[in-house]
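Sanity check. The docking grid for zinc ion depends on where the pocket ends up, so I'm generating a full predicted complex first rather than guessing from homology. Inputs follow.
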Amino acid sequence: MGKKRVFEIPFVGLKLGTHEFVYELDDKFFADKGTEDFLHPKVLVKLTLEKNTGFMILNFSVGGNAEVTCDRCGNPLNITLWDEFKMLVKLVENPEEMNEQEEDPDIFYISRNESLLTVENWLYEFSLLSVPMQKMCSPEEMGGPQCNKEVLQKLKEMEVKHQENNFNALWKGLDKFKEN
Ligand SMILES: [Zn+2]
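Predicted complex below; grid placement will be based on this.
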């Protein structure tokens, strides 16, 4: 069985009704797709596929954890991924045209002649969308063991010193600090 096949669902052979699939996504899955700021991910996606005549409803439950960089202090930060996504897949005569016209990102069209549904890109996309918007140490952790106090202090000093300068200067200063 080829590697890619893992992410292909041969839905034609499925009975009408609900079917469950579980996908474990690791470092390699994300690295192959070019994500670098997502370290040691252990993502588990439970996919429920409800097959109907002419359409399918897909529910993706994303869970797991990964390491990202704290936006404030640059420390590695463990985050928990948890979110749910829904897709409506419709079987039509002219999927390309329909996909072009469709404005709802939760609706996708495939050909009536299609027998496989590839979920790889959705697994990737939904995993990344499950990352919290604010990737920062929580207020309780600020200055705590998770957060990098030295960097925070240095950032504060530089903010004062370079108030007139732009953001780039701040980061240049930070790089220098890191080299020490
Ligand atoms: Zn932090």
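Relevant for the grid: The two ends are 50 Å apart (CA to CA).
Also worth noting: The mean pLDDT is 85.
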